[in-house]
Write a structure and sequence with these properties.
The complex is a heterodimer of chains A (about 70) and B (about 575). In chain A, about 85% of the residues lie in helices and about 0% in strands. The chains are: A mainly alpha (about 70), B alpha+beta (about 575).
Chain lengths: ~70, ~575
């Protein structure tokens, strides 16, 4: 149970780290990409930023769901 | 700008403080034991604790600092929002459940769970105190900044009021009342920020046609001159005009009417917004003149990263500037899960599942709030209500452009924000002193009663220190100081915490060394950096000894390396 939660946590953590790392590195080394407007006239910086916030919450919910389910099985 | 104290704001402010204190005295009766005082008996419902996380975390820097930075410089302030939220992912996936499982009252408990070492208690206690005090300074400065325009009191009075109220809250009821104050504050902040955002969208954008003019502020020994006239609003006097407007909307229209949440950005993207640039010159007679002049800026530039002087480096070619940015973003990511006042909140719930659920609720509230910061900041930028001299007032002034009542509510909430975060920090420091520092020195373990008594004395002392520092550092930028606290927390605490959880070879000497090396190296780096040279000592920034200002990218790995090396050297075979 303890080990299972830790493994799920680690996988989700690495997933988010990749998303966040991508955002930070793009900002630092390719700021021009952030200025493009790929969707509905909104620039990439805002889209990616909002996506990071939403992703944190969605991954948190997934984690809560997976860990909660493990508890029911003895 | 000249602020006249608003009677509704004063009334609301007094009401908030009254409710807060009343709650503390009422709940204080229930928190006599050390379990009650330090950890609210572990009986706080997870949902309440989750909102209280938001209350703890969304400090004056988040609300006033980030909104102000976005209002003055555009997108860059939002980078802080993203970094501050991302840190919660580390807290949830890595730290939350083990923290609850291993510890009882403080962060040192969790680190010490396997070793029972005095050294760990001492080192972790000192790092908790150091981080808390660094985090306290900006909160106290923020309190002074708020009280000036709201109640018409001087800066020091604001700092003293906050200090006194918070000491009363913490001494009477410890973690129980602190938690409920945070819950109240967290919910109010998120709800009213949402209300403000809806009003911004309803109002839409409007082009202001009368051209904005350059403004000057001259400070001499005799007083302050605005545009060459004495400061005041009578005849023959001048005060600064409120600023911030749109000069061109897409398609040549003059008014948009209500806009949708996405249309808000796509409209701004193709508009032209007037930003304000300031320049300060000193003249021979000792007077200082600051000139603020309008600079029409395309929306596409306002909404891209790299406009703020601090972030401009990412658009340049210098590798050091880019490293500085990476270092800041790393410190924000790693710092959250190392902040002592956040970590102690894991002991107020009953088990690991509750710790996990309350973190998820926290992420929901905090994430939602940070989305709103972008609307509020950009709303303030185009509200025509900003004060060119004080970015921290952007959010309250935006509310004033809507209605006087909303201004009063938002200001009172901002003030409660400071109260809440400060009480959490003081409680964390008091716990560290009573439980970790004194506990590591005394030969016989202290009884619960004695610990609570020492913690109460420590709260008063730390509160006094915070008041003095808040007055001394009143000139410093609020957001800048919070960056310090995050870097020190991440460098000192995170390596020890993570390695203890994931590496069986960790020894107690390794943990002690990692905390000390992480803390001193990040602190030394900050004190020798260009930012501190220029802003604190008043020395030329080029003389600084460190290649860039943010320590995290060097000192966080240094903490990990130290822990591994020392652990390998002291391993028992």
């Amino acid at each position: 149970m303890k080990a299972r939660n830790r493994r799920i946590g680690l996988i989700l953590f690495l997933l988010y780290l990749a998303l966040y790392g991508g955002f930070v590195l793009l900002n630092a080394f390719s700021p021009k990409t952030m200025e493009t407007t790929p969707l509905a006239g909104i620039n990439f910086a805002i889209l990616y930023g909002f996506a990071l916030i939403v992703a944190a919450f969605v991954l948190a919910l997934i984690y809560g769901r997976l860990c909660g389910r493990g508890k029911d099985q003895p | 700008m000249i602020y006249s104290p608003s009677p509704i704001a004063v009334a609301l402010f007094l009401m908030f403080v009254g409710i807060t204190l009343g709650l503390s005295f009422y709940l204080g009766k229930r928190a006599k034991s050390s379990e009650g005082y330090f950890a609210a008996h572990g009986q706080i419902p997870w949902f309440v604790n989750g909102v209280a996380f938001a209350g703890d975390y969304l400090s004056a820097a988040s609300f006033l600092g980030i909104c102000g930075m976005i209002a003055f410089h555009g997108y860059d302030g939002f980078l802080y929002s993203i970094g501050f939220l991302a840190g919660w992912v580390v807290a949830l996936f890595v730290v939350a459940e083990p923290m609850k499982r291993l510890g009882k009252f403080t962060f040192a408990d969790a680190l010490n769970a396997r070793f029972d070492s005095r050294g760990i208690k001492l080192a972790a206690g000192i790092s908790t105190l150091a981080v808390s005090i660094f985090y306290l300074i900006p909160q106290m400065v923020g309190a002074g900044v708020l009280v000036q325009p709201l109640l018409g009191l001087p800066h020091w009075a604001g700092v003293v009021i906050v200090g006194a109220v918070v000491i009363t809250i913490v001494v009477t009821a410890g973690m129980v009342s602190t938690t409920w104050v945070q819950f109240l504050k967290g919910s109010l902040l998120v709800i009213f920020s949402a209300v403000l955002t809806v009003m911004i969208l309803q109002r839409g954008f409007e082009v202001q046609t009368n051209p904005a003019e350059q403004q000057t502020v001259t400070t001499t020994a005799d007083g302050t001159l605005v545009n060459g006239m004495p400061l005041g609003d009578g005849p023959g006097q001048n005060s600064l005009a409120p600023v911030g407007h749109i000069s061109k909307l897409p398609g040549g229209i003059t008014k948009t009417g209500p806009v949708g949440p996405l249309e808000f950005f796509s409209t701004l993207q193709d508009s032209e917004i007037v930003l304000w640039v300031s320049k300060t010159t000193a003249s021979a007679d000792g007077s200082q003149t600051t000139t603020y002049h309008p600079r029409p800026t395309p929306g596409s530039q306002v909404l891209r990263p790299g406009q703020h002087p601090k972030f401009r480096g990412i658009r340049g070619d210098a590798f050091g500037d880019k490293l500085n940015f990476l270092s800041l973003m790393l410190a924000l990511f790693c710092g959250t899960a190392s902040l002592p006042h956040i970590l102690i909140r894991y002991y107020t719930v009953k088990d690991e599942a509750a710790a996990r659920k309350s973190t998820i609720v926290g992420i929901g509230c905090i994430g939602f709030f940070y989305v709103l910061t972008l609307y509020m900041g950009l709303g303030a930028m185009t509200s025509g209500a900003m004060d060119v001299t004080d970015s921290n007032m952007a959010a309250p002034l935006l509310a004033r452009s809507m209605s006087e009542l909303l201004f009063a509510i938002i200001s009172a909430i901002a003030f409660t924000t400071v109260l809440g975060t400060v009480s959490g920090l003081i409680l964390a420091s008091a716990g560290a002193v009573a439980h970790d520092l004194i506990g590591s020195f005394s030969a016989t373990p202290l009884t619960g009663q004695e610990q609570v008594r020492i913690a109460k004395i420590a709260s008063v002392v730390v509160g006094m220190i915070a008041i003095v520092l808040g007055i001394l550092f009143q000139e410093l930028n609020v957001g800048y100081l919070v960056g310090w606290a995050f870097s020190i927390a991440a460098s000192a605490n995170l390596p020890a915490l993570v390695m203890l959880l994931f590496w069986k070879g960790t020894t107690k000497q390794g943990i002690v060394a990692a905390i000390i090396v992480g803390m001193t190296s990040s602190l030394a780096w900050i004190l020798l950096s260009a930012d501190t040279y220029a802003k604190v000592y008043g020395l030329p920034a080029e003389d600084a000894l460190t290649p860039f200002s943010q320590p995290g990218i060097i000192t966080i790995p240094l903490g990990f390396v130290t822990l591994i090396l020392v652990s390998l050297l002291t391993r028992r075979t």
